[in-house]
Amino acid sequence: MLSETLTQFSPKLAFIIAAVVIAIMGVTMIGFGWVPHLSLILAICFLLAIGLFKKLSFNDMQAKMAEGVMSGIGAIYLFFFIGLMIAALMMSGAIPTIMYYGFEMISPEFYYISAFVLTSIIGIALGSSLTTAATLGVAFIGMSNAFDANVAIAAGAIVSGAFFGDKMSPLSDTCTIASSVVGIDLFAHIRNMMYTTVPAWIITVALFWFFSGQTVSSDLSQVQVLQGQLIDSGLVQGYAVLPFLVLVGLAVFRVNAIYTIICTIIVALIITYLHSTPSIEQLGGYFFAGYTPAESLDLGEVGGLLSRGGVQSMFFTQTIVILALSLGGLLSALGILPALLSGIKDHLTSSGRAIFAAAMSALSINVLIGEQYLSLLLSGTAFRSTFERLNLHPKNLSRTIEDAGTVINPLVPWSVCGVFISQALGVPVIDYLPYAFFCYLSLLLTLLFGFTGITISKADNSL
């Protein structure tokens, strides 16, 4: 957090300014369809104008924006390595192999559970909820018709599994943002999220089991087509899962995230040369622009699934992070965030109240703006000092904003994820919302644990 403010506002005026900032971003993103970058730049210009009106120098405000960016510089660096690792896991066959064997788990009798479990696995392997939903999710929706399954329930299972993966995968940008914005190690964040995520996952399986037995067909032709395309890629090898085992093993032993990723990339490169021999020039292309299968291979839908990774794929997210942290730096430096928090400071006297306030902040940003990244960045920035004051470990905050930010976005019909998924699956958000059990169970459990104190760590404790 920024150590000092350049000016002061009353809580009432700070609320008005914050509301205008939210309105600027909400109207431009939802109403005009702008990408978040442009909306953030416009909001920053608005705050700079306020600073100039208060006779603040541009250099001082720019310094505070830079200070805000530095608070999350770890995420910006980490994204470079994640882009490299995704490309390496693709070319080595680690992700394709996990996908291939994952398809073996589909059961017509337990179709909804199969959809949830498989999208959970593929979601972790890909690290992208939207990619999982747009590829594997679309395939499941197609199979739903063949199985005579309820499409809304199937969509709820797909969304639940895809966002479980988005929330828990070390390849996920939201996971990286949430940990970095509060200043903790990526894998410490993932381990702490297991306290709410594992129970939510188990309860979700039980709820989908309740709907089991309603499917009547056993046509797995679409699954067989996808498996055949994976085999045709030449990447499916039993030994190809070794890089993932290295990744998980080093994470369990709490090795630094970047060192873990570097080791995983090295092992993935060794595995790659066991079944193919890309040139150094090709490797450079894969690591920058992402891995793509050979054009001579006709891989259909699987071709799109396997074309992922690379440093370039991280640029969109990295620039959002830079702009959002700059915005957070200005909000703090102008005294707007401190004024807002001072209005409720007297009420934030316990872990339960602090977690509730942070969760409602992330949820509100999702509803008002519809942007997943901003719900994490702004809420994490706003409440970091509050958690420090209450001697709460920052991993409590990172878990809270994931449970109330990352997984809530697909439940908002006008949000980025809600619009994308409803269009990709052909199922309105309002239809699948009641069945996206994992998403709102994560929020309910984080609030429950906050008020009961279960799994809440103090600043001087570690997992």
Structure description:
The chain has a domain at 74-314. It is built from 23 helices and no strands. It has helices at 11-31, 36-53, 58-70, 73-92, 94-103, 111-126, 129-147, 151-168, 173-182, 186-210, 221-232, 242-252, 257-275, 280-289, 300-306, 315-333, 336-344, 351-368, 372-389, 394-406, 416-425, 429-432, 437-452. Helix 5 packs antiparallel against helix 11 (221-232) and helix 10 (186-210) crosses helix 23. The mean pLDDT is 86.
Chart the SSEs and their pairings.
Elements: H1 11-31, H2 36-53, H3 58-70, H4 73-92, H5 94-103, H6 111-126, H7 129-147, H8 151-168, H9 173-182, H10 186-210, H11 221-232, H12 242-252, H13 257-275, H14 280-289, H15 300-306, H16 315-333, H17 336-344, H18 351-368, H19 372-389, H20 394-406, H21 416-425, H22 429-432, H23 437-452
Helix pairs in contact: 1-2, 1-17, 2-16, 3-16, 4-9, 4-13, 4-16, 5-6, 5-11, 6-7, 6-8, 7-8, 7-21, 8-10, 9-10, 9-19, 9-20, 10-20, 10-23, 12-13, 16-19, 18-19, 18-20, 18-23, 19-20, 20-23
In short:
By secondary structure, the chain is mainly α. The chain has helices at 11-31, 36-53, 58-70, 73-92, 94-103, 111-126, 129-147, 151-168, 173-182, 186-210, 221-232, 242-252, 257-275, 280-289, 300-306, 315-333, 336-344, 351-368, 372-389, 394-406, 416-425, 429-432, 437-452.
Largest sheet: none
Query: CA-to-CA gap between the ends?
Result: 24 Å
Low-confidence stretches: none
Give the fraction of residues assigned to helices.
over 70%
Order of helices and strands: HHHHHHHHHHHHHHHHHHHHHHH
Report the C-alpha radius of gyration, rounded.
Answer: 22 Å
SS-derived structural category: mainly alpha
Total of helices: 23
Quantity of strands, as a count: 0
